[in-house]
């Protein structure tokens, strides 16, 4: 017997590369190119206050998010990025002997939390054109989780199909990870279903559409019973997840709806014109409802494009996973950045 046998051994999630050089065109981690609103930038905080613990309930932020979405504060759970919120949700709700279900091509953190918490899981294949089939999620399970739009494919599932999955799983929790939903057409979000289904948890983030990946704010919305259960787990783990700057800047971001809308619309416009230009260069582009596109070239292998781009100071994301290893995930940057990418790829193809 040796202590090494009892160490919790996990294969960790690998985040995208964060190069030190600020001059590269960084399109590998789905950050927003525009920076947070001026309302956030002009917030002043008395740094002497940092000697005190923050409000453990982060009430100001919870109330701001609740009123923004027209729900009760008791229906909102906040955390350190949606990764923290998702991790807490796995720990809270996926606690049966039955396997949880998620797509085989999806956010690669899901199997990592499942392994960490020893949750059995089963993956469901996407269709050839990367769609999630609702009928795959109707067998007995200990919970269901999927992003909508899915990552890294960017493909949106229509709300009626999302609802079909929720309705077919009344005895387990369905987590809809809406990290990218603000870039999808209006009416796509499962938030409109929260009042009707006590087994639905919707997870959101400030990292993409609100341009605050560096601050780490995520949240979940569901019926109060679900949020209470998550709070109990959170307070059994770490009371002070949200620091003072996060609470303050998060509230300021919510107050600037105009800036939020205009940057999201700008990214959508750039995405759609970039996708059309990519098709003109011989790329297959999966229809995107996110702030990134998932592409495959008809002849040039993805690894080759990935490496040549990197040498030229352009960072894309490539996943060495069977089924998608000839694809690249490209975040939508500014108009100028995407023009540079198109020029680079025109020379390559
Ligand atoms: N869900 C999905 C589908 C994501 O792609 C990401 C970004 N890596 C996250 C959740 C987590 O984002 P964050 O922790 O920055 O909110």
N- and C-termini, Cα separation: 58 Å
Query: Helix share of residues?
Result: 25-40%
Side-by-side strand order of the widest sheet: 2-8-7-6-5
β-strand amount: 5-15%
Categorize the overall geometry: globular
Instruction: Supply the helix-strand structural class.
Output: alpha/beta
Q: What is the mean predicted local confidence, pLDDT? A: 97
| Gyration radius, in Å | 20 Å
Please write the string of helix (H) and strand (E) elements. EHHEHEHEEHEEEHHHEEHEEH
Number of strands: 12
Distinct small molecules bound, one entry per kind: 4'-deoxy-4'-aminopyridoxal-5'-phosphate
Number of helices: 10
Uncertain spans? none
Main β sheet profile:
5 strands, mixed
